Amino acid sequence: MCGISGIMLPAPARARPRLEAITAMTARLAHRGPDGGGIWLDRDAGIALGHRRLAIIDKSDAGRQPMVSHDQRYLITFNGEVYNAPALRAELLALGHRFRGHSDTEVMLTAIMAFGLERALDRFVGMFAFALWDRTERRLHLVRDRLGKKPLYLGQANGVLLFGSELEALRAFPDFQARIDPDALVALLHQGWIPEEHCIWQGVFKLPPGSMLSIGAAELAACDVDRLRARARPWWSLTNVVRQGREDPLVEHGEIEAMLDELLRTAVSDRMVSDVPVGAFLSGGIDSSAVVALMQAQSPTQIRTFTIGFAESGYDEASDARAVAQHLGTDHTEHRVTPAEAQAVIPDLPGIWSEPFADVSQIPTLLVAKLARERVGVVLSGDGGDECFGGYRRHFMANRLSSLFWVPAGLRRAAATSLTSLGPPVWNELLEWPPLSWSRNLRRTLQGETMHKLADVLDSADEKDLYHRLLQGGPQAYRPCSRSDRPEPADDVADVMRLLPSNAARAMFRDTIGYLPGDVLVKVDRATMALGLEARCPLLDHRILAFAWRLPIGSKIRGGKGKWPLRQVLGRYLPRHLFERPKQGFSVPVGSWLRGPLRSWADDILKSDRISRRDHLNPKVIARLWSEHQAGRRDHTRQLWALLMFETWRDRLDASGQPGLAGAGNPVPGQALHFAAAE
To answer: Fewest Cβ atoms closer than 10 Å to its Cβ: which of 264, 352, 537, 623?
Structure first.
């Protein structure tokens, strides 16, 4: 786990001294690699590579990067881990190759020498983003792992190719112009995160998960950013995994549980290899409990586990995690976070997420990472279980609402209008009206905000629109554009969608190519790497993913419960009463904080006169959202948090003294918060 950066000049290039900027670019990533750094330049070839090191495997100088291959042909700067490096090393030794140390980076380079780049990639088990310079052919290869666990941003400045693990590295290049992309801002304000197909800066893009881009200096001279993006090609594809799973399904039988248990054991065991202490995040939910159970089952010593709790009702899983830890016998550390402690990290968030990010669970993720970093250098997490095995509520709802579109659109719109004609407080009062005799469970289900969420779902245009509304999780105070018009990230998604048998399966696919890399993995990567902590996700092992897509949907979701195979495996290690309970999100009560201790801070940021002096945002819409939230008429937490994170992110750029918002441009009609429907 590290930070990487690089510069490639087009041919012919006159300003060779620009390569010196690699020093500043790499320095911006020091938090990702606090154990050292290195740069490598070839002025004649017009290439510069930078690396910041977080030493996890082989802490000696033999693991330093950028690293050159034994035959002197290849040079690599690499962020991530290849977990099957020991097995590959043994195979390469048998073929006559020799090693200076035992780092996975050296194994990668040797495998590329022995098998070629693409064959080697197929054999790597892990998470990675790397730049490989071929000194013989003078070609640069940029590569990202299968699911996008490790980030890689690419951009251009006056024809020069720039890349780095975070946007701050690109901003350190003197000619880089930071201009906000309105489409990315729309996505941020709509859902709280910027999807993989967008970037907050114009002229910058994220290398798609499972893809590679190969280019020489002469080709670079003929490319703008759009052409560069088009040159990226997949070396792995989830669509192929889904097709193969449909062609070779696993019929339900007793061996499925044993097969998954063995796969999980292997994935967990591979990720426990480290030259620094290893621990795990433990929330008490199914995913993290399964990871910890399999860690402890394979460890001769106590596994270190970490949990944070909150005093607020409905946001605290600490007692559940404690019970799991006690049963498994882990060395457990728990910290109960006060609201003041949680709120104290908010000013740091824009700097940690160099691209604006507004998933409120970023706060507890950062806090539990901070707790773990005090004792370990590596943590395993349970991320990925929901996407692989159907654990999100929207997966169940997508199936239950499959008949929605048989109802005429006009009738659905009329029903939605009726439901939203009464505000949430009025609905809640009606539910308490004695003559209606609502049961307690029904009253809990039909809360006012739930009725408005139902109205939003009823108004969906089609299945894809329904998915995005379920993902958003609530009524929309604004709609920047028709969400049905959004392009899917992969060209052949439509073909795969036709292969999948249910709305739930299609929602899981969309989660894996969109929500997972765009939100979940961004949250975990930036929170942990800000502290020099490496996070590993065994449930996202591509072998487990392939297994999951061979299972019929009925083997994943049963009786309104998801992750059925994972539950069965976990039942081998834990009593069911310790994990069979309603799913609880990893979050904090930001909505109530905005009405209480954060009110003054947020009010200053969202003032109309302040917003009016800036581009993109509509002060009238923001004032309405803020007023309704403060009065308790609507819960606009998601929208307000996105606005606050964007504005504080922009404040940080303005105050940095570095190349910042160079002419953000005028708002585009129909985008950001400037659209007629919002007035």
So the answer is: 623
User: Residue 276 burial (CB < 10 Å; 0-12/13-18/19+)?
Assistant: middle
Helix (H) or strand (E) holding 41: strand 37-42
Question: Cα 122–206–180 angle (5° rounding)?
Answer: 175
- The answer to whether 513 and 489 have CB atoms below 8 angstroms apart is yes
CA torsion sign for 494, 499, 502, 508 is negative
Among candidates 445, 438, 471, which has minimal Cα distance to 456?
Answer: 471
Same-domain pairing of 255 and 154: no
Cis peptide before 174, with omega less than 30 degrees from 0? Answer: no
Backbone dihedral angles phi then psi of residue 345, each to the nearest 5 degrees: -85, -10
Domain end marker among 471, 493, 515: 493
- Phi, psi torsion values for 605, nearest 5 degrees: -70, -35
CA atoms of 578 and 560, how far apart (whole Å): 19
Q: Please give the Cα distance from 209 to 230 (Å, whole number).
A: 14
Q: At residue 546, what is the residue type?
A: A
Q: Which of 205, 236, 267 is the last residue of a domain?
A: 236
Nearest to 181 by CA among 677, 667, 673: 667
Q: How far apart are the first and last CA of the chain?
A: 47
Cross-strand pairs, 378? 278, 534
Q: Domain residues for 619? A: 590-678
The residue type found at 391 is G
Q: pLDDT tens digits for 433-478?
A: 555 554 554 444 455 455 666 777 777 778 888 888 888 754 343 3
Say whether 2 is catalytic: yes
- Closest CA relative to residue 368, chosen from 280, 273, 276: 280
Alpha-carbon gap, residue 353 to 341, rounded angstroms: 19
Neighbours of 18 (CB within 10 A): 19
Q: Give the pLDDT confidence score for residue 470 in this predicted structure.
A: 83
Q: DSSP letter string over 625-640?
A: HHHHHHHTSS--HHHH
The total number of structural domains in the chain stands at: 4
**Whether 306 and 440 share a structural domain:** no
CA of residue 178 relative to chain centroid, distance:
23
Q: By the 8 A CB rule, do 141 and 117 touch?
A: yes
User: In whole angstroms, what is the distance from residue 347 CA to residue 438 CA?
Assistant: 44
Q: Is 421 helix (H, G, I), strand (E, B) or coil?
A: coil
Residue 161's pLDDT band, with cuts at 50, 70 and 90, is: very high
Catalytic residue among 2, 199, 388, 537: 2
Q: Cα dist. 437→430, 444, 445 in Å?
A: 10, 13, 14
| Same domain (yes/no): 251, 212 | no
Instruction: Mark residue 210 as left, alpha or beta (left: phi above 0; alpha: psi -120 to 50; beta: remaining).
Output: left
Quick: pLDDT tens for 95-152: 999 999 889 999 999 999 999 999 999 999 999 999 999 999 999 999 999 999 999 9
Of 460, 524, 463, 454, which is closest to residue 488 (Cα–Cα)? Answer: 463
